[in-house]
Write a sequence for this structure.
C-alpha cells in the first residue's frame, strides 16, 4: 500500500514538473527594463532625422525686411518662447524655422504691417550631451550635420573600455526611448548619446 502511494506521489510530482516546463516555455522572454531598442537582429539601427524643430536654448536671427527696428537675434527661453518688438511674445517651441516665419508673419499682419516679409535662421543651436565611455563626457556645442562619431571625437575620443560599433541615443529628452545606433547616426541638437562599456 505504501509502495503504491509512493509511486503515485512520484507520478504526480513528474506531471507537475512537465506542466511547469510547458508553462515556462510558452511565456515570452523577460524584457530588460531600460534596454535600448535595436534592429531586427539586435544590432544598431539608424534613426530617421526629421526636420529640425526649435526648443529652449536655441538662438535665432529674425529679419523683417525693410524694418530693421523689428529685426534682431533672440534666444528662446525655458519654455521655447522669445519676445519681439511690437508683437511681444512669440511661441517658437516645436516649430521649424519655416513655421516660425509663418507665425511671425501672421502676427505682424494682425494690425501692424500690410505685407511683412520675414526670414528666420538659427545662429546658435542648443547643445548635445555625451555620456559614458568617452574621455570628456558632458555637454557640447552642436555642429550642423554632425554624426555620433564626430560627437565622440569632440568629447575626446573613446576610452579603452568603450564599445565602438554602436552607441545609445535618446532624442527628445532624458525620458525618451533609448535606441542603439551606429557611429554614422546623424545627431541633432539636444540629443543625448551614451557610449557603453564593452565586454572583454
Amino acid at each position: 500500500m505504501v509502495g503504491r502511494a509512493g509511486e503515485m506521489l512520484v507520478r504526480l510530482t513528474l506531471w507537475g514538473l512537465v506542466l511547469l516546463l510547458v508553462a515556462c516555455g510558452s511565456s515570452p522572454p523577460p524584457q530588460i527594463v531600460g534596454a535600448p531598442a535595436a534592429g531586427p537582429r539586435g544590432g544598431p539601427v539608424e534613426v530617421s532625422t526629421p526636420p529640425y524643430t526649435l526648443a529652449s536654448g536655441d538662438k535665432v536671427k529674425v529679419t523683417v525686411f525693410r524694418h530693421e527696428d523689428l529685426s534682431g537675434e533672440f534666444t528662446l527661453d525655458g519654455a521655447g518662447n522669445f519676445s519681439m518688438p511690437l508683437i511681444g511674445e512669440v511661441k517658437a517651441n516645436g516649430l521649424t524655422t519655416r513655421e516660425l516665419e509663418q507665425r511671425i508673419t501672421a502676427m505682424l499682419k494682425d494690425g501692424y504691417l500690410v505685407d511683412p516679409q520675414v526670414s528666420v535662421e538659427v545662429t546658435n543651436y542648443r547643445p548635445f550631451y555625451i555620456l559614458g565611455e568617452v574621455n570628456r563626457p558632458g555637454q557640447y556645442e552642436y555642429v550642423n550635420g554632425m554624426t555620433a562619431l564626430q560627437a565622440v571625437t569632440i568629447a575626446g575620443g573613446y576610452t579603452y573600455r568603450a564599445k565602438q560599433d554602436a552607441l545609445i541615443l535618446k532624442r527628445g529628452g532624458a525620458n525618451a526611448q533609448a535606441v542603439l545606433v551606429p557611429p554614422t547616426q546623424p545627431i541633432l541638437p539636444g540629443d543625448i548619446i551614451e557610449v557603453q562599456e564593452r565586454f572583454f
Notes: Helices lie at 2-26, 97-109, 148-154.
